[in-house]
Write a structure and sequence with these properties.
Layout lengths: L4 E5 L38 H4 L20 E5 L15 E5 H7 L4 H6 L11 H5 L20 E5 L2 E2 L24 E7 L4 H4 L6 E7 L5 E11 L6 E10 L7 E12 L2 E2 L24 E3 L2 E3 L8 E5 L10 E2 L12 E5 L8 E5 L7 E3 L1 E16 L2 E17 L45 E5 L8 E19 L7 E19 L4 H10 L12 H7 L3 E23 L2 E18 L22 E20 L2 E12 L4 E14 L2 E12 L3 H5 E9 L4 H5 L15 E8 L7 E15 L2 E13 L2 E3 L4 H10 L8 E4 L13 E10 L2 E16 L7 E18 L5 E3 L18 E11 L2 E10 L2 E2 L3 H4 L23 E2 L2 E11 L4 E8 L25 H4 L2 E9 L1
Parallel strand pairs: 4-7, 31-36
Antiparallel strand pairs: 1-2, 3-6, 4-5, 6-7, 8-9, 8-46, 9-10, 10-19, 11-18, 12-13, 14-15, 14-21, 16-17, 19-20, 20-22, 22-23, 23-24, 24-25, 25-26, 26-27, 26-30, 27-28, 28-29, 29-32, 30-31, 32-33, 33-37, 34-36, 35-36, 37-38, 38-39, 38-40, 40-41, 41-44, 42-43, 44-45, 45-46
């Protein structure tokens, strides 16, 4: 991990009065005392290499220099040099603490998710609530290359992985735990960073920079609700610091944060999101147990038990009837229905129910953290910084209860089921079974019931322990410039406790049916001990570790016409490990001991040492031309080695125009899950084989539940023979500054990944179709059949799990453009007392193409692809945001506009190459969504923040999210959200929400 360079940035005079805090790697950068502002907290000892230009022209948010007035220290990620005159050829987005406050961004997670360059495969808290593998975590996906290709750092140092892999495959750093109130800024390097930081920095680097110095007390309290009065939000933080680095030679501060975001369920929303009945928007009725042409369709268990008599061989001997006729349909169902049911004679009874009743939109999320930070000037030439952070992020998500009948009565491996276990005539003590209304007739009974008193609940509590120490400084030299050195160490452990309650084992359900221990007649009488015997508490403890030590040395060597030629060298050694045990292992001797498929058997283990050496050389050849070259060699104990070079050039022919470009090579090592783990992922699939469908019909001739849209599993096992992914990056473009207050930039980016790691890229739909048609399957692919159709048990078995493995595919290529705009000035004329600050960014994805081993190409840009790899979030071509802050005296108003373009509901990784533009291949998430959707519309969102400064100490603010109440466009193809895409338009289903807060600085 390379460190970061520091740039003393001239800012506007109106901001010079604000509190200035130095960055963690800048205090020993000498700033000329005569030029430092009175309130600057930057250490003012001076070395010869820095005297000439102690306060330089700044690097803007796009990496160009930009003059202004005042002084603020910021960090530019991606360089080994600690020289305030360094500029970067790489495109860098710089998000300051003030930017986040003005836009109403309350967490690091939100700041990263709103980046225009954050693309397909981003991990949101909303997706975690929908059943994602890495519940409780969030992470960005720069350039749409997934969470494993974006390296996330804090103060230039690596962080431990989240113990649960994204999609059971990708290692990533969770951003939910990070303390926002001590962040000075977030730098986002938007090109390859492997030459400085090593593996995983293929798409870019996120570096969160903490505040070097805090003096006095800072506090904040806020709360909020949606316009419906739900999804409550509370946030508190307090910070106290003592000591002045300039006067006292030290600073110490402590900080603590608390944030609670209440859960939100689909049933709390407006139609159609709150119901399975989509007839109001042109779809079908997807609720359970509805009557059509005299038949009960969507036949499924409800929380009211129904039973039917069966013969000794399990053949139906009569219709389904309410077990407790007197009580009728229980609370939580929608009423009694009657009709014919396939596979059963006579007229049956059932209780209809809302299939969206249990679905969750956002989890119950609580964050707590505490930080201790200490900085001391050890000598006039050196400084010591130490920091320790403890944090806890707890996420609670819930799901639909399991049942005695149908899909959720199967074990995860599909090797055991409870639906063929019948209520006996006699109990063990010889008495007639009170749960069996046919016992007096000597008949067994089959029970169809959903355990409403067993709500599947997953509580993920991650605790992070991070400690870091850094000693840096300078030493005078008689030639070139002074020596600068930095030695640092960081250690971090993430401990995850995952507790799952309310999920039965198959043996538990079977025992509940046969022993008479569970009261199906009146479930309210069941004791907690009985419920625990059916659904034992499931607990795993996972852990990741990261320990890293690094040293760098830099020096100016000689002068060139454009300035000092510099060289930096360094080395790093680190250890990382992960242990994520299987929460639902298969006991092959007793398959019924496995939990139902609600619990995924994802697991991964591994550890490794990494040794690295790196360098950077910077040559200001002439005043208008600067070149930079860097490289890093990494060796992994697993046998991987890689050298990553990078070259950058800046050409400034005039003061108003800068041309820049970079070329880099990078790599990503296989994750622990990809080499030593396994998981089963689920995507939606609708059988369309006529012969198969004809064997699974309702009594009225329509396809029954077994032949409708369902979740099909993809079992992917680790491959220890995988090669690392390698990457080639290019970025380049102009920065134009027509006036002192306006900056425009445009950059083209190109990334090619070779040996791209993915599950065997055979389309799930194609494999399932081939299986049903009896055709040959692709090499190395097998299918585990599903449990039999309970209504037509003699019919053809549908595919249950497709068994794959990870492979190195051919290559993945993406390219596009980044645009940015920044303005900062006083308005003219009668508005001269109004200060205007405007900042906008946009990203256009030109291509996102995956080339398969057979040479075929999947094209994803502008579609829902890659469907399986990114949870059907898709790859919109455009994402943009634009904020405008108008400040007048003590009042500041900031509207921010967000835009995500529309996309086709096709995905070539599901339907094959050259199908992206074919509406006939559009995907649907269920059999009940309206047909014919080929494209999802664009989504706009406008947020508003109002700040008022009462005096030097007190201020108040209000945030309105989705001010104009824009609704999410319908997306009938994704499965990441119900009828909408949770990656891009979450605010459109929540609608307006409001937050209010008060801040104090003493």
């Amino acid at each position: 991990m390379g460190a970061t360079a520091c740039i003393a940035l001239l800012h506007f005079a109106s901001e010079a009065q604000a509190q200035t805090v130095s960055s963690p790697e800048t205090s020993t950068i000498r700033a000329n005392a005569a030029k430092s502002p009175a309130k600057s907290t930057v250490k003012t000892t001076t070395s010869r290499s820095m005297r000439a230009k102690a306060v330089s022209a700044p690097v803007s948010t796009t990496g160009a220099s930009a003059p202004s007035a005042g002084a603020e220290t910021i960090m530019v990620t991606g360089s080994l040099f600690r020289d305030p005159n360094t500029t970067s050829a790489s495109p860098i987005t710089h998000i300051t603490m003030k930017d986040m406050q003005q836009r109403g961004i309350k967490t690091v997670t939100d700041a990263l998710q709103l980046l225009s360059s954050n693309g397909a495969g981003n991990l949101t808290n909303a997706w975690s609530a929908g059943g994602g593998f890495a519940a409780g975590a969030s992470a960005p996906s720069l350039r749409g290359l997934s969470t494993d290709s974006t390296l996330v750092l804090m103060d230039g140092q690596r962080l431990s992985y989240y113990p649960l892999a994204d999609d059971g495959e990708r290692n990533f750093v969770d951003t939910n735990w990070m303390p926002q109130s001590i962040m000075q800024s977030v730098d986002v390097l938007q090109d390859g960073g492997s030459a400085t930081y090593g593996a995983d920095a293929v798409a870019g680097v996120v570096n969160m920079i903490t505040r070097k110095e805090i003096k006095g007390f800072e506090g904040n309290a806020e709360g909020g609700l949606t316009q419906r009065g739900d999804a409550g939000h509370q946030r508190l933080y307090a910070t106290w610091g003592h000591g002045d680095l300039h006067k006292d030679g030290y600073n110490f501060y402590i900080n603590s944060e608390y944030q609670q975001d209440d859960p939100l369920y689909y049933r709390q929303l407006n139609a159609p999101y709150n119901n399975g009945d989509l007839t109001g928007i042109g779809g079908g009725n997807g609720n359970g147990n509805i009557v059509s042409d005299g038949a009960i369709t969507n036949f499924s268990p409800s929380t009211t038990a129904i039973v039917r008599p069966v013969t000794g061989t399990g053949t139906s001997a009569g219709p389904w009837q309410l077990l407790n006729q007197q009580a009728g349909c229980r609370t939580g169902t929608d009423g009694l229905v009657t009709g014919t049911v396939a596979g059963t004679t006579g007229t049956s009874q059932a209780c209809s129910w809302n299939t969206q009743k249990y679905a969750q939109l956002a989890p119950d999320l609580r964050r707590v953290n505490a930080t201790v930070h200490f900085t001391a000037n050890v000598t006039e030439r050196s400084q010591l910084t130490a920091m320790f952070t403890w944090s806890q992020a707890r996420s609670i998500s819930t799901g639909t209860p399991a049942s005695t009948y149908g899909g959720s009565s199967y074990s995860q491996a599909k090797l055991a089921t409870a639906q063929n276990t019948y209520l006996p005539v006699y109990l063990a003590d010889g008495s007639l079974n009170p749960n069996n209304p046919y016992a007096a007739l000597g008949e067994q009974a089959q029970v169809n019931y959903r355990f409403g008193d067993l709500l599947p609940t997953t509580t993920d509590t991650s605790q992070n322990f991070r400690g870091s120490v850094r000693y840096n400084g300078w030493h005078p030299s008689r030639w070139g410039s002074d020596w600068n050195y930095d030695v640092n160490f960081v250690g971090m452990n993430t401990l995850l406790n995952q507790t799952i309650t309310g999920v039965p084992t198959i043996a538990g359900i079977q025992n509940a049916i046969t022993s008479g221990s569970y009261n199906f007649v009146d479930p309210s009488l069941n004791s907690q001990s009985v419920l625990n015997s059916i659904a034992p508490r499931n607990v795993i403890n996972a852990r990741t570790q990261e320990y890293s030590g690094e040293a760098t040395l830099s020096k100016g060597l000689f002068r060139l016409p454009g300035g000092m030629a510099k060289l930096a060298i360094g080395g790093n050694i680190r250890y990382e490990a992960l242990n994520d045990p299987n929460a639902n292992p298969l006991d092959t001797l007793n398959p019924a001991n496995q939990y139902t498929g609600i619990i995924n058997p994802v697991n991964a283990q591994g550890s490794r040492w990494v040794e690295s050496g790196f360098f950077e050389a910077n040559a200001p050849i002439v005043k208008m031309l600067t070149a930079d070259a860097s490289g890093r060699y990494d060796h992994y104990s697993e046998g991987f080695s890689h050298f990553s070079p990078k070259f950058g050039v800046q050409f400034k022919p005039t003061e108003k125009l800068t041309l820049r470009g970079t070329f880099a090579k990078g790599f990503r090592v296989p994750s622990f899950a990809e080499t030593g783990g396994s998981n089963v992922g689920y995507t939606t699939y609708t059988p369309n084989n006529a012969n198969f469908v004809s064997q699974h019909l309702n009594a009225n001739g329509t396809p029954n539940n077994y032949a409708q849209n369902y979740y099909i599993g993809s079992n992917t096992a680790g491959n220890p023979n995988l090669r690392p992914e390698t990457a080639t990056n290019f970025s380049g473009g102009p920065i134009f500054r027509p006036t002192r207050w306006l900056t425009l930039s445009a950059d083209y980016y190109y990334i090619r990944k070779n040996h791209y790691i993915a599950p065997n890229p055979v389309g799930t739909t194609n494999v399932a179709n081939a299986y049903l048609a009896g055709e040959a399957l692709p090499t190395g692919v097998t299918v585990t059949p599903d449990i039999a159709d309970p209504q037509n048990p003699g019919g053809q078995l549908r595919p249950g799990i497709i068994n794959l493995g990870y492979v190195n595919t051919n290559k993945l290529v993406t390219d596009g453009f980044d645009l940015s705009f920044e303005a900062n000035t006083q308005l003219p004329g009668v508005f001269r007392e109004v200060h205007w600050y405007s900042k906008g960014t946009a990203t256009f994805v030109r291509r996102m193409n995956l080339t398969n081993p057979d040479g075929s190409v999947y094209r994803f840009a502008g579609t829902l692809g890659p469907y399986g790899a990114v949870s059907a979030s898709g790859t919109p071509r455009w994402r943009a945001n634009w904020s405008n802050t108008l400040s007048w005296r003590k009042l500041a108003v900031t509207p921010t506009v967000y835009y995500t373009s529309g996309y086709r509901t096709t995905a070539e990784d599901q339907t094959g190459s050259n199908t992206a533009g074919n509406c006939a291949d559009a995907l649907t998430s269920s059999s009940f969504v309206p047909s014919g959707q080929c494209k999802v519309k664009a989504f706009w969102d406008v947020d508003l923040t109002v700040n008022y400064q009462f005096n030097r100490r007190w201020s108040a603010y209000a945030n309105v999210y989705n001010l104009l109440g824009f609704k999410s466009p319908y997306d009938f193809g994704t499965y990441g959200g119900y009828l909408y895409n949770s990656s891009w338009s979450q605010n459109g289903v929540v609608l307006r929400s409001f937050q209010f807060g008060v801040k104090v600085v003493l």
